[in-house]
Write a structure and sequence with these properties.
Elements lengths: L3 E2 L2 E2 L5 E5 L3 E2 L5 E2 L2 E8 L9 E5 L27 E2 L4 E2 L4 E5 L14 E2 L4 E2 L9 H15 L6 E5 L1 H12 L6 E5 L7 H15 L17 H14 L2 H7 L12 H16 L2 H13 L2 H5 L2 H4 L6 E7 L7 H13 L4 E6 L7 H4 L1 H14 L6
Parallel strand pairs: 7-10, 7-13, 8-9, 13-14, 14-15, 15-16
Antiparallel strand pairs: 1-2, 3-6, 4-5, 6-10, 11-12
Helix pairs in contact: 1-2, 3-4, 3-7, 4-6
Length: 373
């Protein structure tokens, strides 16, 4: 019996799937054993046909919805505004799975994990994961749960990129997809900001080539890299409205400076630098057109329904990124709808403006139940 709570619910703790034979990465390395952390919400029906896989973005985790406790300070999952009882992804109907991706510091075996063969952190020896690795880890969990075909796969940003990779790798594994604030590849402007951030981390004297865990100090490089990342998440309108050229009290410090310092320190206290550079690099390396020769070739076997959602103030993945994917799918005769949403919140709209994204997601999923005429 699920306990409803306020506008959310009390979720079960994360679960672990231990791969005793290890996990083999795309670039050839195998880590043994390997633990994958995941969460589930709702009830899987008898035919196991009501499952939706949700893919998380760079700084998120498998905790996509609900709260673990009744404590009001216990944060809800990162997509709690979209996943829940009576919400767009309705847990009265669907069974939702979210898997913590390889390289992430939130449970799945990661750079900060202890290598049982040495008794030390993997650190610099941890493999560089790819989006394909993330997708395969999700497939492993679904196989473990006995789910052979998904009702849908949904995600935003890096999560949306995973969704599109599913179309290329396992096109018959799902009935539909929902990809928000994403594209088949990160545009070069986004890659440029990402590279600057990673170089700042790598040149931090405390980074020590990725083997810094014994020092126990928060890396300034990671703090600054996160500040740079925020520049791609916000919009010009949001920056002006929230901060403008305002100063902190009677000081010479700009409000935007204070905000970046706060966000950078907060993030560096929760995330791991090795994870950041690896997961972000995987995001930059994905390019379906380059990998498959063309987007049409990448999506050639995908025949399900697609909902692509873009935001008009998104700097990281502009509307054109979704339109390129939509165009390729349309050329193949695929059923695709591109929803263009107007918002002042930039890339972060998919995590903030649930009132704007709920209608199209709800309508799309309800449309899956309507027989074709």
């Amino acid at each position: 019996m699920v306990e409803r709570y306020s506008n959310t619910f009390i979720s079960a703790p994360a679960r672990e799937l231990v791969l005793e034979e290890g996990f083999r990465f795309t670039h050839g390395q195998t880590l043994t054993p390997f633990t994958i952390v995941y969460e589930t919400y709702g009830e899987l029906n008898a035919s196991k046909s009501n499952a939706i896989l949700v893919c998380h973005a760079l700084s998120a985790s498998a905790h996509a919805a609900g709260r673990y406790t009744h404590d009001e300070n216990d944060r809800t999952g990162w997509w709690d505004g979209l996943i829940g009882y009576g919400k767009a992804i309705d847990l009265e109907k669907y069974f939702v799975v979210c898997v913590n991706l390889p390289g992430s510091p939130f449970g799945t075996t990661a750079p900060q994990s202890i290598d049982p063969s040495t008794g030390k952190h993997y650190g610099s020896r941890y493999p560089w994961p790819t989006i394909e690795d993330m997708v395969r880890s999700q497939k492993i969990v679904l196989d473990h749960l006995g789910i052979t075909r998904l009702r849908s796969i949904a995600g935003g940003s890096l999560g949306g990129m995973q969704v599109l990779m599913w179309c290329a790798m396992y096109p018959e594994a799902m009935e539909s997809i929902i990809a928000m604030a994403s594209g088949s590849a990160v545009p070069v402007t986004g890659i440029a900001w990402h590279i600057i951030g990673r170089k700042i981390i790598e040149t931090d004297q405390r980074f020590h080539g990725g083997d810094y865990y014994d020092h126990g100090e928060q890396l300034r490089g990671l703090e600054v890299a996160r500040m740079i990342g925020h520049m791609t998440y916000l919009s010009a309108h949001a920056l002006q409205t929230k901060f403008g050229r305002r100063r902190r009290g009677d000081t010479r410090q700009f409000e935007i400076d204070s905000y970046f310092e706060y966000q950078g320190k907060k993030f560096a206290g929760l995330y791991d630098a090795n994870s950041y550079i690896r997961v972000q690099a995987a995001m930059d390396e994905m390019d379906l057109e380059e990998q498959y020769g063309s987007l049409q070739a990448a999506f050639s076997k995908w025949r399900g329904k697609s909902l692509l959602v873009s935001f008009d103030t998104d700097w990281l993945f502009p509307v054109s990124a979704s339109e390129s994917v939509a165009g390729a799918m349309r050329s193949l005769g695929t059923d695709v709808h591109h929803e263009r949403v107007s918002s002042t919140n930039g890339h972060d709209t998919f995590l903030i403006d649930f009132d704007k994204i709920t209608p199209c997601v709800r309508a799309f999923l309800e449309g899956l139940n309507v027989p074709q005429s």
